[in-house]
Amino acid sequence: MTRYSLFLLVITCLGLVRLSAQDINIHGTLKDHDSKGKLRNAMVIVFQDGKEMNRYNCNDSGIYNFLMPVGHEHTLRYSCKRYFSKIISIDSRDIPDSLAEGGFEMKIDGTLLRKVKKVDARLFEEPIAIAKYDEEEGDFAFDFNYTEIRQAEIEAALGNVKNSKRRVKK
Fold first, then answer.
1. How far is the C-alpha of 31 from the C-alpha of 115, rounded, in Å?
2. What is the spatial distance between Cα 14 and Cα 107, in angstroms, rounded to a whole number?
3. b vs e for 7-37, b when ≥16 Cβ sit within 10 Å of the residue's Cβ?
4. How far is CA 144 from CA 14, 17, 55, in A?
5. Which of 65, 75, 92, 123 has its CA at 20 to 30 Å from residue 167's CA atom?
6. What angle do CA 112, 115, 117 make, to 5 degrees?
7. Global pTM?
8. How far apart are CA 35 and CA 12, in angstroms?
9. Cα–Cα distance between 163 and 170 in angstroms, integer?
10. How far is residue 67's CA from residue 22's CA, in Å, rounded to a whole number?
11. pLDDT tens, the chain, 170 aa long
């Protein structure tokens, strides 16, 4: 596996779990992409329908956990000093009330990449992943085709920086 894994979310246990309300329990661990060390000063900024809703700090082990109400479009911005941010979009607007009653759980473990000179940070202002409720599955589903395209764009930008460094050394 090459740089394909760059920014790929390690999404585990994306399952339907009954909670006490019509909420989505979002939790996971953030790590450094290269060292796999846990990011203890990371933060998750949650936007609901385009407006900032809350900020959650990861604990010393890079772990975060919070609830979001069903029936909205949410954007999660994972950030940490000296790292590129990562954005994930979760759309829970079309969940039938009868199916949302118990709530949901999404475990989203991820990595952040240390900032690299000459890589435009604007590349990281679009979501790396998009999830939407899939009625057939009865759960949230990520659009992996979209993620592959975004990752290819990021890999190309990082590859261009590496290639320019090689040309300078020659």
1. 14
2. 6
3. bbbebeebeeeeeeebbbbbebbbbbbeeee
4. 14, 22, 27
5. 123
6. 155
7. 0.81
8. 20
9. 11
10. 10
11. 444 343 333 333 333 343 346 899 999 999 999 999 999 899 999 999 999 999 999 999 999 999 999 999 999 999 999 999 999 999 999 888 888 888 899 999 999 999 988 888 899 999 999 999 998 888 899 999 999 999 999 999 888 765 554 444 44
Phi first, then psi: what are they for 104, rounded to 5°? -140, 165
| Phi and psi torsions of 34, nearest 5° | -85, -50
* DSSP calls for the chain: --GGGTT--EE--------SSSEEEEEEEEEETTT--B-TT-EEEEEETTEEEEEEE--TTSEEEEEEESSSEEEEEEE-TTB--EEEEEE-TT--HHHHTT-EEEEEEEEEPBP-TTS-GGGGSS-SEEEEEETTTTEEEE-HHHHHHHHHHHHHHHHHHHHHHHHHH-
C-alpha torsion angle, residues 58, 126, 111, 21 (rounded to 10): 50
Give the residue carrying structure tokens 């240390």. 114
